[in-house]
């Protein structure tokens, strides 16, 4: 994940030294995410913030021998934590419990994300914002509304992190096909919950799977998070795999900012793909560059089955996005 540097072309003028802030660094995702970011040599200043525990996480992570500074910040230090950040990653919020959907987290996490977005808008308005806090389909629109209200909205620098769906797709496909997941590249589009998660299996070598296997595989990719929630038995949701996904996406954003070429990830962004149908945000392949989103890619050729999945996803996404937008407008 951090070894891609040698294989890409660089812009001679771009920086490779960046400040990254993690908001929610003391949590189940935040701690391993902070560790993984400490291993990224582009991250030269790592700012860890939380309502409690961030200085301890920072002291611990700071002992990892890579050439970067790490500092932890308490709630009264958020200005210092955010000022000068190039990338801000937000995993803050409460985890799912058994029987909960990501949407059930909305009331609690919506307020948390709104307040952190306000701080980001004030203290680091030019930073790339990577939203992990669920439900992503609704929290990303909340952040967009906050930034619009503050007059600093840049759609090229707001991302919903859907990378975990891509990682799961690679892993689950490999288990069905008996292959190495490292070699499985699966595009996952739509959103980041349930039926809005659409793995484009027809665009892989596994497009001829029997219908029953295909349906089971798609369902597992869509609801794979439930496996973790159930297995943790009330102790939380996906944290380690989500941290890996967040670190991978943050690494790609940094690669883009540094001027590397052909940096492509799937992510939930302000998208033109279905805007004329009322879908303001959609996840698809995106080329990342020095200004954030360089290009939003189309979905390519889909099977009839996938066309049906996309139609269902769009209907759900419109509702999810409206829920976030309405919250932000009603609770400024």
From TrEMBL:
BP GO terms, sorted: malate metabolic process; tricarboxylic acid cycle
Record GO terms (molecular function): L-malate dehydrogenase (NAD+) activity
Positions bound to NAD(+): 24-30, 50, 109, 132-134, 242
Matches recorded under Gene3D superfamilies: Lactate dehydrogenase/glycoside hydrolase, family 4, C-terminal, NAD(P)-binding Rossmann-like Domain
PROSITE patterns associated with the record: MDH (PS00068)
Ranges of residues in domain Lactate/malate dehydrogenase N-terminal: 19-160
Protein name in the entry: Malate dehydrogenase
Source species of the chain: Candida verbasci
